[in-house]
Design a protein that fits this description.
With 117 residues, this protein is mostly beta strands. It is built from no helices and 6 strands. The N and C termini lie far apart (34 Å).
């Protein structure tokens, strides 16, 4: 998947290198902000594989978003992603696919969960 001309731009926030506070304890460094252009974003529901419960007798419960980023985009399980002003955590490992038959590529697929609290 190439960058989508009408896609949504998102920002990946990658934890910075740790630094030390005045007591010598490791503390996270400032996050690096990495723009990613031309993504597709879709609601992710809790009815697929791994969904164990139905809440309030509803069949579909939105649990986050699925991000489809251009092939080769570096997104890690430890990253956070800002989509439309909301902050999401990466849920699991991002995945991508290259066909061994044609060499064609698909998007990097990332499950996102809204950061609350």
């Amino acid at each position: 998947m190439r960058e989508l001309p009408n896609g949504e731009d998102v920002t990946v926030l990658r934890p910075g290198a740790p630094t030390q506070d005045r007591y010598g304890n490791d503390v996270p460094g400032p996050a690096a902000e990495i723009p990613v252009y031309g993504c597709a974003v879709a609601p992710r529901d809790g009815t697929g594989a791994g969904a164990n419960e139905i809440i309030d007798a509803r069949d579909t419960v939105i649990v986050g978003l699925t991000l489809y980023a251009p092939y080769g985009t570096d997104i890690r399980a430890t990253d956070r992603v800002r989509v439309g002003g909301e902050l999401y955590e990466v849920d699991g490992q991002p995945g991508s696919f290259r066909s061994p038959f044609t060499g064609s590529t698909g998007p990097v697929v990332v499950a996102l969960e809204l950061v609350t609290g």
